[in-house]
C-alpha cells in the first residue's frame, strides 16, 4: 500500500495562492503538491465528483483507472447485498472518473486542448443513464447540478444513446432487480397473446364469498377448499332490491370476477 501511494504521488503544482482547496489531499506530498489518489479516495463522494468536474489539476490515468475499477466493483457488491447504500451517486462517480480518463488519454495521445471536466460530466451522464435508463429527469438533474443550460443538448443525446445501447443488451438495473425479487408489477406493454383475451377469459364463474356473520367453521372450510386467500364480504340488499333485482337475490350472486 505504501509503495502504491508513493507511485501515485502527483507532482502537479498547485496555484500560487496559499488558499488551497480543503478537498485537496496532500497526504505525504511536499509543499505545493497534492496526492491525486488520496484526493479521490479520502473525500466524500460528493466532494470527489466536484473534483472530477471542476479540478484543473492533473489526475493521472493510472489513478483514474484504479479508482474506477474499485468503485465499480464496490458499487456492484453493495447493491447486491440488499443494503440501503444507494446507486445514484456511485454511478455518477464511476462515470465521471471514466470520462476524465478518456479526456486524459485524448490529451496525451492526440494533444487536444480540451477541458477534462466536460468529459467527466458526459461520462457521468452516460454511465448513470446506462444503469438506470432515465432520460428527461436525469437531464434536468444534471443541468441543475452544473448550472449550465448549454449542456442540455449534449447530455440529452448522451442519455438517449446510453439508453438505446443498454436496451440492446438487457433491461435496466431496477427492472432486473424487480424480477429477481419477484415483485408483482404490471409491464408498460402487454404481451402479444393478451391482445386476444376478453374479460370473460379471466373472470371467475363461481366466486366464493362470505357474510359478516359467517361461522368460524365455515371460514376454515372455505380456506381449506380454495387456493386463494381473499374473499368479498357481502350483505343482502334489502333496501333497493325491489328497484334493482327481482326476488330475494343477493348482490354477491351478480359478482363474477376474481
From TrEMBL:
It is found in: Membrane. Keywords: CBS domain, Membrane, Repeat, Transmembrane, Transmembrane helix. The keyword Glycoprotein does not apply. The chain crosses the membrane at residues 62-81, 87-106, 118-143. Its main location: membrane. It comes from Ilyodon furcidens. The lineage of its organism: Eukaryota, Metazoa, Chordata, Craniata, Vertebrata. Gene3D superfamilies: Clc chloride channel. It is a multi-pass membrane protein. SUPFAM superfamilies: CBS-domain pair, Clc chloride channel. This is Chloride transport protein 6. InterPro entries: CBS_dom_sf, Cl-channel/antiporter, Cl-channel_core, ClC. The gene is CLCN6_1.
Amino acid at each position: 500500500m505504501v509503495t502504491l501511494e508513493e507511485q501515485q504521488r502527483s507532482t502537479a503544482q498547485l496555484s500560487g495562492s496559499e488558499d488551497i482547496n480543503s478537498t485537496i489531499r496532500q497526504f505525504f506530498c511536499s509543499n505545493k503538491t497534492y496526492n491525486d489518489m488520496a484526493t479521490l479516495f479520502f473525500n466524500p463522494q460528493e466532494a470527489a465528483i466536484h473534483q472530477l468536474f471542476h479540478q484543473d489539476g492533473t489526475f493521472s490515468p493510472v489513478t483514474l483507472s484504479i479508482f474506477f475499477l474499485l468503485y465499480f466493483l464496490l458499487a456492484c457488491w453493495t447493491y447486491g447485498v440488499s443494503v440501503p447504500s444507494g446507486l445514484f451517486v456511485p454511478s455518477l462517480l464511476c462515470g465521471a472518473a471514466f470520462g476524465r480518463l478518456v479526456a486524459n488519454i485524448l490529451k496525451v495521445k492526440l494533444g487536444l486542448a480540451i477541458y477534462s471536466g466536460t468529459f467527466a460530466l458526459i461520462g457521468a451522464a452516460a454511465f448513470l443513464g446506462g444503469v438506470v435508463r432515465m432520460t428527461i429527469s436525469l437531464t434536468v438533474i444534471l443541468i441543475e447540478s452544473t448550472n449550465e443550460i448549454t449542456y442540455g443538448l449534449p447530455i440529452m443525446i448522451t442519455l438517449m444513446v446510453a439508453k438505446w445501447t443498454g436496451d440492446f443488451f438487457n433491461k435496466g438495473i431496477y427492472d432486473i432487480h424487480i424480477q429477481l425479487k419477484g415483485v408483482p408489477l404490471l409491464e408498460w406493454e402487454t404481451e402479444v397473446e393478451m391482445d386476444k383475451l376478453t374479460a370473460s377469459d379471466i373472470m371467475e364463474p363461481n366466486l366464493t364469498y362470505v357474510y359478516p356473520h359467517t361461522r368460524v367453521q365455515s371460514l376454515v372450510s372455505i380456506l381449506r377448499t380454495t387456493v386463494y386467500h381473499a374473499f368479498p364480504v357481502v350483505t343482502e340488499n334489502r333496501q333497493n332490491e325491489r328497484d334493482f333485482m327481482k326476488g330475494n337475490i343477493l348482490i354477491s350472486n351478480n359478482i363474477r370476477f376474481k
